[in-house]
Write a structure and sequence with these properties.
Elements (H helix, E strand, L loop, with lengths): L2 H18 L31 H9 L11 H11 L1 H4 L24 H10 L14 H13 L13 H5 L25
The structure holds heme C.
Heme C (HEC) binds next to helix 4, helix 5 and helix 6.
Length: 191
Amino acid sequence: MPNSLRLTAALACLSVALVMSPPAMADIALNNTVSGEPLNLDDAPPEGKDSAAFKEFMQSGKNPYVGKQDCFAKGEELFNGACSGCHGHLAEGKIGPGLNDDYWTYPQNATDKGMFETIFGGASGQMGPMYNSVNVQEMLLAMAWVRHLYIGDPEKAEWLEADARKTLKKYDNTPAPKPGADAPQECKMGG
Ligand code: HEC
């Protein structure tokens, strides 16, 4: 094939590929819980940003770890390391407010997007941005544990679909199960 023809063929393939590829879904917009200013993800170290879970969250605004039994123990470990000193081991509240009931200072914390915004960007007083303690993927894991600790009104569990609210069980102090052999890598303990 002459070179010019080859180029034409290549360009034709390329344009077909460009037309056929679905438009990239835009990432959700994240804003500071208190000021409403846009959050800058570049403030956080790169770890976890390439994870499937974080990418999914940035597209859907939903935390894929919520309800994932295999990831509870890891979420608990992260929560106990970075949050429980202020919020209490059961998220019952200490110097920071309780996170296990259905009262929120900032109502958007009843959504995954809202709680991520608070953890990433902080709120007021002692609640500073947490990205130097936990990476963005670890934030999602810790959030899933916080949701698991919930003892509030199931109907107010806004982060769940209406169906899932109906079957939601309040936290009953059952220890988090050990991650199974097929748990996602990031949920394996000590790794
Ligand atoms: C140094 C103490 C401290 C640490 C560590 C801390 N928090 Fe907080 N947190 C607070 C305080 C104080 C507030 C109340 C801030 C406000 O009202 O503006 C708060 C508020 C919050 C809220 C909003 C609650 C509401 O009612 O709207 C959430 C959600 C939250 N924290 C989650 C976390 C998570 C998850 C972690 C760990 C990754 C964490 N915090 C770590 C002190 C802390």
